[in-house]
Write a structure and sequence with these properties.
Length: 407
Amino acid sequence: MSDEVGSPTDETTGAGVSLVERYEAFTDGIGEEVVVIVVATLAVAVFPWLFAEAPVVSDVLDGYRGLATLMLIWAIFAIGFDLLLGYTGLLSFGHAAFWGGAAYAAGIFSAEVTGEPLLVVLAGTTFAVLFAWVLGFLSLRRGGIYFSILTLAFAQMLFYMASSPLAFLTNGENGFTSVEITPLLGVLDLGTEAPFHMLLGEWLYVFVAVFTVGAIWFAYRILNSPYGTVFRAIRENEQRAEFVGLNVWRYKLMSFVLSGAFAGVAGSLFTIHGNYVPLESLYWTESGEIVIMTVLGGVGSLFGPIFGAGVYLYVENIVSGMEALTIPFTEIVLISNFGVYWHILLGLVFVVVVVGFPRGIWGMIEDLTGFVVLAVTDREAAKARVRTKLSGARDRTVETFSRGGKR
């Protein structure tokens, strides 16, 4: 009797099996989230040493720790931009307004209010979020190429405002040079060595790395929430999303604001990293660079834009400084004055990736990994089939001999 009563109750109320299923789904999601955070933390912790200090690898890459920090800052920017381009399908040419605007806001805040790094990041991010709200409210009235042009126009307006009418505040074409960053929480000077110095370097890298892991975690939570699902639905078919009752404009605005928030964090960290805000941080080329980084790494993927930012900055900062292209560990010169061709090299890399691997560097990694796994799986399956056939043949042989023996 208890079974007869209990089963219908569980089915109707969901208090039995459904709770277990919900718990399992929750723990599965938490487990995957923990894996993402742990992998990101380990990768960020090892990266500067691998890039600048590790034997053999660092000799080939010729990297340095300052560039590793800058790569993480741009990675945060790229992750946020991909939320808009890769997951919502909106191409903005005006994200320099949030990156550079936040950089200026952070710099001015540090000079006029306080140089506490956390408050500086908060000030820059707040400016970017508010500005993204206003700019998104105006630009999202139009779609497609008109949206892209509107964002570009607003960003260029901000650039010219900073270069001339607001020069008394931004220092015009010379950039803002009065950035004053104080020790973190009044204790930790970001320029001093952190624990595990051989691995992490200075506290500045640790400070940026914490924000990077936090950005990855936050983006992961967004993409695995109902908001992320709606973003993808809008990207796939905006009209169908409207037909099912979703307020598409509101979700697009929220995606735009979230993307601006990531750009704000990155722009603020850029100011702390360089103690300087160049006027070029508001120029349209910054918007173009973040588009290239995101597409190069792979739109619509969590980790792709990080790789795209890394490759772009590597070519821009390392390859551009090469006097000659030589065979590693030898003095044999292949191309002299190789650094002057870095734009061509970057263009070739971009064309090859876009044409050969439309899902970017991350998609290429996924395809190669899948190919290797499939090859290994097929090999194991082939071995299993051979073992089965041999086993069957052996059984038939034994059976034949057994029958022969009976005869």
